[in-house]
Amino acid sequence: MRADLSSSPVSNSNSPENELQHSEGIRIVTPEEFDSSTAQTPGSKRLGAIPGRSISKTQMWGGLFFVEPKSQTAIHHHGVQETIVYVLEGQALIRWGEHGEFEAVANPGDFIRVPPFLPHQETNPSGSVTFSWVVVRSTSEPIVVNLPAGYWD
To answer: Is pTM beyond 0.70 here?
Structure first.
């Protein structure tokens, strides 16, 4: 769906006011610009899109998250960050809690909220489909605290 901008005011693009107003305008980040050097958790892959190397002023982090079939992440949390996820493809079994005592299944089209400091783990039960998510976090630098392997034992 495209917005009808025909009635939008048009300003002089050469004016100093317009330059200042739009200096931090919309920025498209293409897949070629995604950053694989962002913080990682064993068993998964994260690609950072925002902030990218060319985006300066943001208070959020956004990217993609993948777990291969029959794989799972290490138990981890994201410190002070609140996380919102949208499931693009695949199914994920998510465990969480101080002892891993809670679990739920997320499917394509679902949103997930992960509170700050909550230990959790994602598992991909599929034998053939990688699960993929769009992830948005509440701070500009990704925080990933990987917990010891026996954390829930």
So the answer is: yes
